Amino acid sequence: RIPRAALVRTRAAHGRGVADLSAMARGDRRSLLVGGGEAGDSTCAVRPASHDPKDLSTESFILQHESGELGGKFIRAAGADPQPALVVNCGCYTSLVKVLEQAAPFYATRGYAYVVVWNKGAVEDVADHIFHRWSADAEAVLSWLEDQTWCDGRIGAHGISLLGSTAYAMVRAAARRQGRLRLCAAVPALSFSRIHPTVFVWGNGLAAELVLRFLWLAEVGARDGALRGLRLRWGVLRVF
Questions:
Q1: CA-based end-to-end distance of the chain
Q2: Which of 55, 60, 104, 130 is most buried as measured by Cβ atoms within 10 A of its Cβ?
Q3: pLDDT in tens, 130-140
Q4: What are the residue ranges of helices labelled H in the chain?
Q5: C-alpha span between 104 and 108 (Å, rounded)
Q6: pLDDT digits (tens, 9 = 90+) for 143-159
């Protein structure tokens, strides 16, 4: 569960609203409250300098922590001043890495370092500990970013569906930390931050169809190419 104080909100002259990446991209100058929500704990969202696509570089890295191992890439303008980092955690869906790499230049040419991470190791092992890994991976990524001189301390997180849940995990992890990093924007889409109210609709009936779909995606569907015929049927039964 994400603490209420961890919600990222803007304070503008004409009201309040949830901060998003589009506001940062537009260059809106707004005060962003992060973490405890104290008035003095704020940063200014100003659009970074743009860069030519030919100046972009891609670097790979590996992060190891007690719960597992992460592979990662970051795309940014080589030799540029410190930049905000936009983080996407693919979790066990490594097939999405190539898709996100294609989207990276859109952000990198606009002055952001685009960071993509994913779970390494056996897909089955990752999927079976999926909820724990979201938090542990977020902590590991933030610790790594803390040491990167090319990151100016501002972070954004986004993702769709399961990747949105990893973005929520990044928000929660950032709210717990002390240091120079500030999570200034989060844009999860078609996702959830808490499991119980999602599975039990308004605390009442069980959303059985949603549960079955999620179990398939997280537990069985993640095992690309490994389940066919009888093995596929056995994999479905194992979920229950």
A1: 25
A2: 104
A3: 778 999 999 99
A4: 21-26, 97-108, 123-128, 130-146, 162-176, 196-199, 208-215, 229-239
A5: 6
A6: 999 999 999 999 999 99
